[in-house]
Amino acid sequence: MQKKLSEFQPNESGSVVAVGGEGRIRRRLFDMGITPGADVVMRKRAPLGDPIEVTLRGYELTLRKTEAECVTVEVK
How far apart are the C-alpha atoms of 12 and 25, rounded to whole Å? Predict the structure, then answer.
């Protein structure tokens, strides 16, 4: 099942399938290591839902909800 990273719940994991967005946002996501095939685990969400913290390639990464909406993940 595929869904957006922004829809993940804490401790849910998956593998990145596609990175959407355009221009600077897409480039920024790639620069942070969010590429197809990368495993990602959703760690926690701020009280109001933005930002979210994920573990990716062995490090913790904090993303805005708008950035997370550009990432499609295959749930494990």
Answer: 24
